[in-house]
Each structure stands twice: as structure tokens, then as C-alpha cells.
Amino acid sequence: MSAVPAPGDVVLGRRQLFMLPTRFGLIFALLLVVQLLTAINYGNGLAYALTFLLGSLAVVSMLYTHRNLLRLRLSAGACAPVFAGEIAVFRAHLANDDSTPRFGVAVLHDKKEIASVDIAAHDSTDVEIPVTTSRRGYLAMPPVTLTTRFPLGLLYSWSRRIGLGQSCLVYPRPAEPVPRQTREDQTPEPAQGMKAGGDDYIGVREFRPGDSPRHVDWKAVARGETWRVKQFGGGYQATLWLDWDTLEGLGAEERLSVLTRWVLEAERDGMLYGLRLPEISFPPANGEQHQHECLRALALFGLKP
Amino acid sequence: MNTGIAHRPVLHSLLAAGAGAVAPHILELPLWIIAVFAIGAAWRYACEAFQWYRPGRFVRLTLMLLILVAVFRQYGTLLGRDPGMALLITLLGLKFLELKTQRDFVVSLFVFYLVILGSFLYSQSLWLGVWALLAVAACTAALMHLMQPAGMDLRRRLRLSGMMIAKALPLMVIVYLLFPRISGTLWGLPADAHSGLTGMSDTMQPGSIRSLSESSEIAFRVSFDGASPPARELYWRGLVLTETDGRGWRRAQPIATDKVSFTPLSAPLSYQVTLEPSDKPWMPALDLPATRPKDARLQSDFTLKHNDPVRERLNYSLSSYTRYRTGAPDRAERAATLRLPRNTSARVRALAEGWRRENDDPLRVAQAALDYFRHDNFVYTLNPPLLGDDPVDEFLFGTRRGFCEHYAAAFVTLMRAAGIPSRVVLGYLGGELNTAGNYLIVRQSDAHAWAEIWTPERGWVRVDPTGAIAPERIELGLDAVRRLEQQGVVLGSLPADAVLHALELGWFEYVGLHARWYWDLTNMAWYRWVVDYGKERQERFLTSLGLDEISWSRLVSLLFAVALVLTLAYALILLRRKKSVDPALAAYLRFCRELARTGLIRAPYEGALDFARRCTQRRPDLKDHVDNITGRYLRCRYSGHDSAEELRLLKREVSAFRT
Fold first, then answer.
1. Which residue does chain B place closest to A121, by CA atoms?
2. pLDDT tens, B275-294?
């Protein structure tokens, strides 16, 4: 909640804000004209006073409308990577560093209102901006516009389009499941033997006295089947090389799609897998970080950094 | 924008705003019109709260036609002020049933603003102004509610709308004072624009002044340039009645003359009159006026007549002479002021002729008549008995109880019977001196009738027969007479100091009277700056600013310039970044600045306790002060509970601290 904007934050200043009357504002102006004509025709002091009061109210409301957006601080939140074709969800973080609350701040993307939020004094809020993805690579966060009609709806203030410099990594679209092709000399082999006692579920065997009751497959017991014990293993069953070159005959994008699918499957199956691309290769490993590195390499393959 | 909105909470706001806007019209419009509005509002409320039947388009259209017909039947037209307001309010009631989109609500609210304005066409009182301000606040808060249906609670809406209005008011005042006013109207006013004004009629029937005396409405106000003359000289001449049929008295056709045809015998008195609208052309002036205001004629009977009936409060300056000698009436006038109705009874004629035989001087004849009133059991009363076809005869020989009009009519009849030219003068007598603003308030109840007789030596001479019978009326005013009568005092019977004693005010009445005076003063200011602030007043105001003869366009530029400056000032206040520094921190920082002068500078990373430790090492002599202030500062900032007392002590110690 620091009042000093971090780099990358955008603080709305006077020059970024614009204002015009709304349709209600124009109707209100018409009302004032009618009132003024009545006041003049009747020479009615109070009618003059009311007309000018309402006019002044509109002028004062202009300041309030402007203030409602002024000095709002925008920053981008993290955006989780998605696969092409999925919806990337960007987060705009709207912070109010002032001691006056903001009401009815609308966030516009692509001329459509995504959300309308109130932000209390010294508070902030997040607005999600969903964007449909189509291509792999980095997707830049679309610029957003902040608008408000606060407080009387007579005036409409909007900011210029604000790009927050955030982008979202889009992995290639995973291909339909394809049988895994591997190079012959790299037939997956058990690298190490099975090693019980790990965390990963690897199968069941007959119950033997002395087994931990925590590992008994109680659901099966409840079904009246024989007692079995779940076995967990920490070792990886196989090492697998996922190789660009095995996919000869396919286009580059298709190869990337297929490789993406394989990475996902290998990770799912708990295998040790490596990825070999024409310019870069990742030695066999396993885990979320490894998967992400592989997928990022696939996403950015051939794209200019 | 045409989205449906959460109806029920917003409807509450709209109902409150509508009630505020329509309420003043209860006093002016037929009750059924207000009822239609209320029923529409209540119906819609029931729809939201109890899921009542909500009429469809066809029903609403039928209701609208019915309303149009009803309004037309009420007024015979759909145009003009009253039918216009009636239509606006009834259709707003119907509109409640139709409200669906945000736009419907907003349009309703905008029309509420118009309805508030409409109430000013009936009255421009101070109270209505205050009420309207509240109604505008309610409408504005409702508008806010419409725009932010969820985010702001009621208190916040009311506060913001109040704050916005408070900021708008100074801006409004500037535009209000400087916006160029025109004289006259743009299209002419509808026929019903002026109604319900009271004023003195141009005839006098028995009982006509009596009925006026019931009204405490203000007729006019006067401020004298110097001291105001004594009450017995405050005869405000309204109109002169010459012709009579024995019962009623009427004006003769006087000749308009702008030449003053009398010789003043005293110094002139200058004064300003603020005349309330009466729908009559008479302009009261102190006996006798020597000048004529704008748009008015001075007539041969020394009365002032406005060119048009007075329908707006009128302000004029006059000068009068309370002592004078007039010339002789011309032949026609003399004949008219001697003419007696044929039905004048013989004993009335005989009475007057008897006096005339005994006295040659008209003034002595008049004195005889006054003596007759004084000594022959005549009574001045506010509740005289009703008189029949020959009121003068009945009054003189029968009831002998009467009001000023009876005495004036009887006296003039007697004088004419005695062959002395005479006439009735209708006007006001006295007035209440408002010491709060040093001006005189003359009410309709101060209406008075007196007589004038013509003598060859002095011209027209004022004779007030009421004074012979009830000097209290002349010296103390009608209000005193009323109070004396309530106490059972017979008028003219008590010595002066006993009368004054009887009239002494209790403290309660004293406070009430002064409150009334200040209230009237407030109203005067209200009239000056709001109700009567037209072209003339504006010119006077601009002259007082040194802006006389300013052109229309330069006035508008000035208006915009001043409004712009004020708006920019608001922008500076509203849009600046608000720094909220904790008062305890502010005091502590002052303390640190003081220490810094000795070279003890607190490093940015240094906490208060660390700094205190370092200070006491370097300057052991300051240990007590430093420990004390640091301790209080820490307790103020971090102890959590309210520490107003601690803060006060902290501030005091910091102020006292010297290195």
C-alpha cells in the first residue's frame, strides 16, 4: 500500500483523463434551459436561484467525477500460463492511495465494460480481464480504459488506454493424443528399480502382516474383496526422450503441438522425460518446474525473444 | 444504460425525493392532484413490497387519458401555470407505475427538479426556499443512488449531496447576482399568474375597513431618511372618496396633475416605501406627497396612482410635507365635495345646520361636530353593530358605536350638510416601528379613514373624528386599541400614563415582539435579494460595486470569470492530495527538528527508542525531557487506546522543549 508507485505501475494523472457529458447530462442541460426560461419569463428570483444551483451542482459534480479516477494506481497482477485456445486471465490491480473512496469505477476492455468496482480509501481491488488466446508465445495484456459516471451520472470521464506491460505465456495447443514415438536407441528403460516408500502411487499387492494400516486399500476391503495394500514408490519408472526429430513429416506447429501433448502425458504418468528441440534440449527430469520449462521452450520455439 | 435496476431500494430514494418536491404544492393545488401522485407512488411501493398487481401498458394509457380529462375539467384548459403543474404532478404519479429502466428513474428525478421550480411560481417565501434546498438535496442523493445502486449507503449519499450543494451554493450566488436580468417577461404571463392579493378597494362600505383590520398582512414598509415623525402625523394617504349614495363612498374622477399645488409649511420628509403587491394602483404616501415616483401620477386630490395595478413589490422614494396650505378646489370639485345624497335624513341636516348657524368658521363647525362625538356617548369599537339602509342617521342617533369609517362617513356627511366642502380620505394610520431595522411596518390592519374639510384660509384641512373619540387609536395604533379593549378599558377614559401602564409588555411578549421584528428584517433582506432581485435591484447592486453602466456582454464575461476562479479554487481543494499526518508524529518531528539544531540528527533507519538512547548518551542533561517525550510519543502512536490526554501533554512538552 505504498504511495510510491512501483515501476510498471500507472498512476492516472490529469493528462490521461478526459470528460464529456453523458446523455443524462444533455437531458439535464435541457432541463436547465427550460428552468431558466421559466425564471426569466416569470422574473422569479427563486426560480433563477434553483436553476443556477442545479447548474453549479453540475459544475461541482465535474470535479467529483474527475477526482473519482484521478491518482488511481494501476498495476498488473500475475497471469498464469494457458494453452492456446484457452482463456488467459489477466489481472489489473486498482489501488486507491487517497483518503477518499472511489465509487463506480468501470474497467473497459475492447470497449466493453468488464467490471465496475468501488475502492475504499487506501484500499485496492483486482479486476480480471479474460482474453481468448489463439497462438502460442507471449500474449501482451490488452490495454484497459477506466471510466466513471460518479457521482450524478451527468458526466462521463474516461482514461486513455492504459497498457500495463504485462504478458501471459501461451503454451502451444496440445495435439490430440498421439502414440509416443521415441528413437529406437532410446527405448524407455527403467533407470532404477522400483523403490518402495516414496510418495507416488505405483500399484497394489497382497496384504502381509506387518503392513501399515494406513496403506490398506480400505475401499476394496469394504467391497468385500481381498485385502490389498497400496504401494507407493519414489523412483521413476522410465526415462523418456521427447524429440523433435522423431516427428518428421509434420509441420513445425504440429510437431510443437504433439510434443506439448507428450510433455503433459509424461508428466502425468510420472516419467522422467527430456525434451530435445533443434536448438535446445532439456535433460530428463520431472516435476512442475521442468514441465513449465519444457512447455515454455515449446511455446517460444522459433519466436523472436 | 437501459438496464433494469434493483428497484426497491432505489424506489425508496425516489419516493423521498418526490415527496419533498411535491409537498409545497399541497398548499396550492386541488387535493385530488396530490392524491393521484400519492396513490401512484404508494401503488408502486406495494408492487415492490407486497407483489401487488402492476398495471400493464393498456391500463396505464387509460389512466393517463382519465387524468388528462380530469385536469381539463378542473381548469377548462391544459395550458397555463396551474393546469401545467397539475399535469406534471399527476403524470409523475402515473410514471411510478411505469418505472423500469435507469432512464425512467432519472427522467422522473429531473422532472422533480422542475416541480420544485414550479412551487416558486406560487410563493417565494423564505421557508419555501429552505424547503426547496432540502428537496434538491433529496433529489440529488436519489440521483446518486441511481448511479451507484450498491456502493454508497444512505448516510454517505446524503453527506456527499449535502457537500456538493454546499459547494454549489457560492457558485450559484455569483451567477445569481451577476446574471443579467431583463425587465418584463419573454412571452407574457398566463392569466392565473397573480391571484390572491389583498389590498384596499376603491370604495368604502360600512364594514370594509373593519374587515381589513382583521388582516395582519403587511401593506407596506417605510424607512425614513431621518428620524421618523411622531405617530399622530403618520397619515398615509391612499385614495380620496368624494361621491356617496348615503351608504357607500366612491372616488370621483380626479385629474392627473404632476404639478404640486400646495404651499409647504414644514421641512420635507424623505423616505422609501416598499409596497407589497395589492393588485390595486394606489400608492400610499405620507400626507402630502410632493414628488412622484417612476411610473406613477400625482393626482389633483394629492394621491399617488401607479400606472398599472401593483402586482410586484414596489420600491419608491418620496418626499412629503406634513404641514401645508393647499389652494382652492375648482368649481366641479367644490360641487362634488358638497353634494349630499338625497336620502340624507332631516335630523342629520338639522344637526349640522344648527352648528353652522352658531359658527361662521368652518373649523369651529368641525370642532362642534368633534365635541358632539366626544360628549354624546359615542364609543369607538372594533366590533360595531351592523347598520341598515341609512347608516349615517342610524349611527348618529341610534347605535353611536362605530369604527373609523363610521366616524369619517358621519363627519363628512355632517360637514356637507353644514355647507362645508369635505371628503373622506382612505389610507393607513401609524405603523409599527421595527427598531431592529429602524423602519416602519404598516399592516392592512392599520387601514384608516379620516376626513378633510376645505377652509378658505388653509385650504384642505385634515380632521380625524376618530381622534376625538379614541385618541389611543391615533397615538398608539390599532394594536394598542385591541389590547385595551381586551382588558375592558373604555377608550378615551384613562389618563395617558395609565394607558401606557396598561400597555406595558410582559417579558414574554417583549421577546416575541423582538423576534417578530428580526424575522421581518430577515424577510426584508429576502425580498431585496431574492424575490425582488430584478433589473432595477441588480443595477443598484452593480452600482454599489462600482460597475454602473456595464454592458450585457461584459457582465456575462465577468460572471464567467468569477465563476471560473471559484471553480478552480474548488478544484485545488478537491483534487489536491490529502496528507494526513498523525498529530503525535507531527509533534515528535518538531521535537526532532529541535534536537537537530544541536547536531543530533535522527537517521532514517533509527527508531524512536534508539534515537533517544543515542541522544541521552550525547546529552545526558536532556535525558529527562527526551525520555519523557519519547515515551509519550510511543504511547500515543502505539498503545492502541484513545490517548487524547497523552497527546495534549506530548504537544505541551514538545512546545516547551528547548535544547
1. B578
2. 888 888 889 999 888 888 88
